[in-house]
Amino acid sequence: MLLLLQVALGVEKRQVTGSLPAPAIVLTKGQEVFVFQCFPAFGRWESDVQRTLRERGAVLREAADVVLTRWNESHEIPLLAVEFCSALPAGNQAWQRSGRAYSIPKACIPYIFVTELGGFELDRNRERKAARLPNPAVPYSFVSYSSYTGYPVMIAYLMNPGG
Q: Tell me: the pLDDT tens digits for 83-132?
């Protein structure tokens, strides 16, 4: 997530501060400074983003890999949930994150599923057997649900390093 933020913001400098269990990442671009306080693992901290999601209407207990929030003097305000997956989009795996893609926008929070494109299924000798392409029904369902909820539900494709 940090690398994606650095690229998206065109960061010139990165600094890590704070404690090892909860580091703060400081990204700088010109005069702008972005501070990302990391709280790894849900449910271990005083502020519980999972509880906040449920209170806002999320219907599943499953958590996205990353929930970006903004601190508002007394509480966190969720801004974006992101899920990462590098598994090939084959069989049921293509639908596996759909529960989170359904639940999180119900809490009025945009959801991005970051996955790889261009992978190959391998045979028992680790030779390429067949290309794996995304199931077109999955992005269609995300776009359709975005339209229904009014909150973006998106898939972001990164090239598979083996593709």
A: 988 776 666 666 777 888 999 999 999 999 998 887 778 889 988 888 77
DSSP assignment string, 67-135: EEEEEETTEEEEEEEEEEE-S---GGGGGTTHHHHHHHHHTT--EEEEEEESEEEE-TTS-EEEEE---
Helix axes 98-106, 137-149, angle to 10 degrees: 10
The contacts of residue 30 (CB under 8 Å, 6+ apart) are: 12
CB atoms within 10 A of CB 82: 19
pTM: predicted TM-score of the whole model, two decimal places:
0.82
Domain ranges for the chain:
1-38, 49-159
In angstroms, rounded to a whole number, what is the distance separating the alpha carbons of residues 110 and 114?
A: 13
At 85, which amino acid appears? C
